[in-house]
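User: I'm new to structure prediction. If I give you an amino acid sequence, what do you actually give back? Let's try with this one:
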Amino acid sequence: MLALKAASLARGHSGVREIVVDTLIAVHNAGLTPYVPSQGSVGASGDLAPLAHMTLALIGEGDILVDGNRVPAAAALQDPARAARGSSSPAVSARISTLTAELRARDDELKSTREELESSNEELKSSNEEMQSVNEEMQSTNEELETSKEELQSVNEELSTVNAELQAKVSDLSRANNDMNNLLAGTGIGTVFVDHQLNILRFTPAVAGIINLIPSDVGRPITHIVANLPGYASLAADVQAVLDTLVAREIPVQTMDQRNFTMRVQPYRRLDNMIEGAVISFLDITDLTTARNELREANALARLAVVLRDASDAITMQDLQGKTLAWNPGAARLYGWSEAEALGMNVRERIPEPLQTAALARLERLGRAEVIESYSTQRLDKSGALLEVSITATALLDDRGQLYAIASTERAKKP
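Assistant: Good question. You get back a string of structure tokens that encode the predicted 3D arrangement of the chain. For your 415 residues, that looks like this:
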């Protein structure tokens, strides 16, 4: 067996050192045979047990057959006499001893390595248990994360629903805001919104012509803004009074371009009846004022017409070129021309030719706004007869103070 193993290892395929092969040969040459029991085969090939017993004998652990006697391997390897009889060289015994020492050292190293391996194995088992514990914790955490993920998905769905509702409300609010802006712009009513500190919050475009406002004025106090309202300088005081008393005010104002407005100041109320400032609105009443003035003038003219119609004196009116503009019934009775006939005549046709120069001089005096007292003169009637009359002439002035006509009251003098 030793010879076969030495021959097998000597081929160099096993990777063992040369001293191992030399030791096997030395033990064989010394007549020493490792004791191998006939029973106890291990492994599928049945050669592991013989090899193990042979290796134990070489390291002095097993038994060796010496001359057919079974003796401890350590005693057989250390017997110098037996070693001398079985060895062809004195170095064999020393080599066997060296190999035995090395094998024992290797065995110690193997034991130490085995212990370290067992220790490492225990540490690995402990680490494995810890890893399993960590894995279980990770699985638990993963389950919690899955649960959290489902909850987050549910919350995300709720947020998506709320977001959709908010988007719809924002769209409705934007549409309502656009409708309100177009409504305010379409009415043409200038409006300014201010807070409790009289700071401008927003305004409509129509107010820019009344108060000098531009988009960058939002946030500025209304007291810093110059209004195009001559004769009215108490805007801030009136707004503050409305905020203090919560009673609306209406004030007539006029711009520099003679446009008339009704300025209304009222509190700004929320739906819950909370006051958040004031609203200043300007309603254009220029046309209404003009119509009111025209109606007043028409009423005055109507009353004057009644007076002229019922007057017994002749009352006439002519422009600066002498064209007749008015002719009352008294004039028709005095001169004989009807109103229709007289309105197509010139005053010169009723003045005798010798008196026309003096009459023109009086017109020039009236043009200089000089007062002319009643005077006596002559006029022609429809038949061409001269009439002795007393005339009172009055200059008629327009809104600019310019002469535009002359009114005269003429009365026949009694003979």
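You can read the tokens as a compact description of the fold. Here is one thing that stands out. Residues 83-89 have pLDDT under 50 and may be disordered.
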